[in-house]
Amino acid sequence: xxxxxxxxxxxxxxxxxxxxxxxxxxxxxxxxxxxxxxxxxxxxxxxxxxxxxxxxxxxxxxxxxxxxxxxxxxxxxxxxxxxxxxxxxxxxxxxxxxxxxxxxxxxxxxx
Length: 111
What we know:
This protein is an alpha+beta fold. The protein is 21% helix and 29% strand.
């Protein structure tokens, strides 16, 4: 017999459902479990999905992928609070979404 340790470290608001052998588990954000596993047991992760029930728009925004966030962002060149010079590449065939994605991936100093 062996033990496996599972912890949900996905973004807050996402839960995971899985089964080991004939037992089913559901873990919310930061929940953890240690499971005794017998030889030959199968483990199956079913879903990583938002918790059921109502959430705020802020909760939805926190769980966006980087690609979804780039689509939702305003063009960096149109932001009056933008502190960096960003050359507009739309004439070079680069869309605002691609530009936003590149900006999100750019490392910055957090002083």
